[in-house]
Write a structure and sequence with these properties.
It contains four helices and four strands; from the N terminus they run E-E-H-H-H-E-E-H. The protein is α+β, with helices and mostly antiparallel strands.
Length: 122
């Protein structure tokens, strides 16, 4: 048995950050380019740009910086902190739900086993 879940952060009913943006920010960090990050993720530049800008506007902070001299893009300290906190949230939720799933499975096994054994006897 498994417990399934998805975590995302919203503000005023609009997504700020979730698994998709986590992947986008990771790709930006690796590629140093929004265009290359979008290509790596198989999404359009326009979609990547829209998600990035929406998150920045909803949070009210800059999440990427462009270096005109090097023509590269980097995550701001705020973006790195957001990425780290989101990953920690996902990791802790995953660990808790995995533990709870094991406990529920054990409980259900122990609760149903006597009933199954009784049916076999009868």
């Amino acid at each position: 048995m498994e417990i399934k879940y998805k975590i995302w952060i919203e503000k005023d009913g609009k997504v700020i950050f979730g698994h998709g943006r986590e992947e986008l920010f990771q790709a930006i960090d690796e590629c140093h380019s929004l265009n290359a990050a979008a290509k790596k993720l198989g999404m359009s530049y326009r979609a990547a740009w829209g998600r990035l800008r929406a998150s920045e506007e909803r949070l009210g902070v800059k999440l990427v910086e462009s270096d005109a001299a090097k023509k590269g893009m980097t995550l701001t300290p705020a973006a790195k902190t957001l990425l780290e906190k989101f990953r920690r949230l996902e990791s802790e939720a995953d660990a808790y739900l995995h533990k709870t799933s094991r406990e529920l499975s054990a409980l259900l096994e122990s609760d149903t086993k006597p009933a199954i054994d009784e049916k076999k006897k009868g």
